[in-house]
Structure formats: structure tokens, C-alpha cells
Design brief:
single chain, alpha+beta, Immunoglobulin-like, 2 domains, four-stranded antiparallel beta sheet, three-stranded antiparallel beta sheet, 3 helices
Length: 160
């Protein structure tokens, strides 16, 4: 059997001989594979650390809404939070939302507590071509409008 790639012709015997040297990795070998990749790369440390150092949490619940090709909206449900307890800022290519619950002087006794009112810190990585346009906090819903930055020479111009 002969396989042709442009001007190159490969025989099945050649493929078996060369492909046999490829190391197969399984999910159990992932740490070894990552060590091999990191030893043979420059500047990838921070990129791979994102995968290892992320913690998955569902609190607070949020939606990411695609408005159009340029705009997106992040909606975060913050029932029970006051505006002064919430901070929204960008730093090092991340959008960070923090909520700090002020401790109450007297603790209430609950028969059922369905609203989680605990402090949190969530972050979302932002690409270099997006920016936060505005932030609103109304009726327990935090809305962050995000827009792509389009250079002047890439925007549409109508001449007639």
C-alpha cells in the first residue's frame, strides 16, 4: 500500500517503522506529558498553570450572553448583596468580581436558608481585544457589558 502526500510517497512499512516510535499517552500519564511539554517550551508556564490552579465553583450563578459579534454581557445573580459589598475591576487580563458580606451584629436563626450570602471571588480571563464598557448593579443582578475593541482601520466605512 502506498500513500501519497503531494510529491512524497509513503509505504505502509515506512509508516509502521516510524509511527512505532511515537509514545502513546493515556490520562494516567498526563503529569508526565505535561512535564515533557514544559521542559521543552518557553513562556508556557503561566498558560498551563491556569489549568492546574483553577477551582470550579458554582457561586454566584452567572450567565454569559452573546449580544452580537462585538458585544457580550455577563449577568451575575447577587441576591441579598448591597452595592457597597460588591467590587468589579480588571487586572492582568482578568475581569474580577468580589463580594464581601458584612457580618451582622446579631445572628438570625433560620428554619430554612435558601439564599447563599457568603463572600466570593470570581474571575474570568479576558482576551486582549475586549474591554469592559459599563457595569450596573440593580435589583440583585450585576450586569457587566463587554465589547470588542475594533481598530479604526478594521471598522466599516461607507463612502457613497
Amino acid at each position: 500500500m502506498v500513500i501519497a502526500f503531494g510529491d512524497h510517497k509513503l509505504t505502509l512499512a515506512y509508516l509502521r517503522r516510524t509511527m512505532g516510535k511515537i509514545t502513546k499517552y493515556h490520562s494516567a500519564d498526563l503529569p508526565e506529558l505535561m512535564d515533557t511539554i514544559l521542559k521543552n517550551s518557553f513562556g508556557m508556564d503561566n498558560y498551563f498553570d491556569q489549568f492546574y490552579n483553577t477551582t470550579t465553583t458554582n457561586y454566584p450563578p452567572y450567565n454569559i450572553v452573546h449580544v452580537n459579534n462585538i458585544e457580550s454581557r455577563l449577568e451575575i445573580a447577587l441576591a441579598g448583596f448591597k452595592k457597597k459589598e460588591v467590587k468589579v475591576y480588571t487586572e492582568h487580563g482578568k475581569l474580577i468580581v468580589e463580594g464581601k458580606v458584612e457580618s451582622k451584629e446579631e445572628e438570625d436563626k433560620f428554619y430554612h436558608q435558601g439564599l447563599a450570602q457568603r463572600s466570593f471571588n470570581r474571575s474570568w480571563r479576558m482576551s486582549d481585544d475586549v474591554e469592559v464598557k459599563d457595569v450596573k448593579f440593580q435589583d440583585g443582578l450585576l450586569t457587566v457589558n463587554i465589547s470588542k475593541v475594533i481598530p479604526e482601520h478594521h471598522t466599516r466605512k461607507d463612502f457613497l
